[in-house]
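Z., the sequence and structure:
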Amino acid sequence: MAYQEQQTETKRTVVETPNARREVVHSEAVRYPDRRGLSGGALAAIIVGVIALAAIIVFFVMNRQQDQTNANVASQSPPQTTIVQQPAQQPPVIVQQPATQAPVIVNNPTSGGSNAGNVPDDLGIRAAIDKKLSDDPNFSSLGIVASVSDGKVTLTGTVKTESLKNQAERAVRNVKGVKAIDNQITVG
């Protein structure tokens, strides 16, 4: 540490003895440290501040790079398209009456274009097929879907072998009320 200021203090003491009289000079120097530099605490605070500022700048630069990467990815990906499937329109059923009356048009809201007399039969056939497929351990985990219209069954789904595809068709053929089978199960 450099010492800039120094103060000297001098004391004079007279000592008298029976034989002589003499004077004793006592001098003492006091030094004060130089106060012009930075203290250790101030220097530590400055260093911590510089490190914090550098960290903030690094985080800011990294965030801007991430934003630019996200913008590039967003500009390269094609826009998302949502496809909504709606049920097909059913053609009106025209029932002809004797010539004395005007024709009556009946719109049938049931699925598959079947007439009202067969709706419970189609629902019953589908329920029987679903039960048969879910009760059979070979088919229960395959996700085979059956739809029924006027006794005609359409099978869809994916199986591992052609043999499983044929077994599923045979199992459905044995259900009461099935008139025809359209087997659209894929092997993959």
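Helices lie at 40-76, 119-135, 162-173. The longest strand covers residues 3-16.

Let me know what you think.
H.
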